[in-house]
Amino acid sequence: MDTEGSQISLSSSTDTSSHDPCKMFIGGLSWQTTQEGLREYFCKFGEVKECMVMRDPVTKRSRGFGFVTYADQAGVESVLAQNRHELDSKTFVTLVDVLRHVRLILRWRFPVGLSLSW
Question: In what order do the strands lie in the sheet with 85-87?
Fold first, then answer.
């Protein structure tokens, strides 16, 4: 099979927008962090439109990450202006536009013949 020049498309047919600049990925959360605790922490940076802690569907235990969506970009900028974030005695990371970061990693890892159209 000739694979030279072949392309891999990683597009999502259900996602029509490239990203939501007000949505943040929150990684490295404590297992004890609740959705209410996450919302309370991030409300001090701006109006939180949506907040969720991802949980295992079987055990209902936190998976250690979540998402926060702000009503406007000012909330995101306030969060990013602070270098260190800690909640429930655990320092965590914040990322905006997670798909962009994934694309950059994939391009670095598989630079030849890979087309990322999502």
Answer: 48-55, 62-70, 23-27, 90-96, 85-87
Question: CA-to-CA distance for 118 and 60, rounded, in angstroms?
Answer: 31
Per-residue model confidence as pLDDT tens digits over 61-96 = 999 999 999 999 999 999 989 888 999 999 998 887
Q: How many domains does the chain have?
A: 1
Asked whether the whole model's pTM tops 0.85, one would answer: no
Contact 47, 75 (CB under 8 A): yes
Rounded CA separation 81/44 (Å): 13
18 lies in some domain: no
Q: How many other C-beta atoms can be found within 10 angstroms of the C-beta atom of residue 73?
A: 12
Name the 3-class secondary structure at 27.
strand
CATH number at residue 36: 3.30.70.330
Indicate the SS3 state at residue 81.
helix
